Amino acid sequence: MNSPHHSKWALAAALAATAMLSACYVVPARPYRAYDDGYAYGPPVTVAPPPAQVEVVGVAPYPGAIWIGGYWSWVGGRHIWIRGRWDAPRPGYRWEPHMWQRQGQAWREAPGRWRPVN
Fold it and tell me: Among 17, 65, 94, 113, who pairs with 86 as Cys (CB 3.0-4.6 Å)?
């Protein structure tokens, strides 16, 4: 039987969950692309990376924090998803996301990096 005390806890939990979810947003998946300067890293991989996953991003942990999206990485002979994270901006730099570069029949990983703003 539901007691008034139990109902209050259920209502409080529902309100807390609603508040937490309203502070989140969904980041759309971006297609992979090559860096302008041809920068690539890692051995050639013959298995194309899967489509990027959609990530639910919470509230920034502090003002000015930037979201660095997740990506597929080649580890142990397979693609694994590396979750996104919050990071502090670096004055004079911009973040270039992790990407996969196609080279003929193979793919090469290009890790995300901070690049100087010119």
Answer: 65
- The 10s digit of each residue's pLDDT in 14-60 is 555 554 444 444 444 444 444 455 555 678 899 999 999 999 999 99
The 10 Å CB-count burial string (b at 16+, else e) for 64-97 is eeebebbbbbbeeeebeeeebeeeeeeeeeebbb
pTM beyond cutoff 0.70: no
CA 83 vs CA 12, 53, 55: distances in Å: 30, 9, 8
Q: What are phi and psi of 109, to 5 degrees?
A: -80, 135
Percent of the chain at pLDDT > 70 equals: 65
HSE-up of residue 58 (Cα within 13 Å, Cβ side): 9
3-state secondary structure 48-116: CCCCCCCEEECCCCCCCCEEECCEEEEECCEEEEECCEEECCCCCEEEECCEEEEECCEEEEECCEEEE
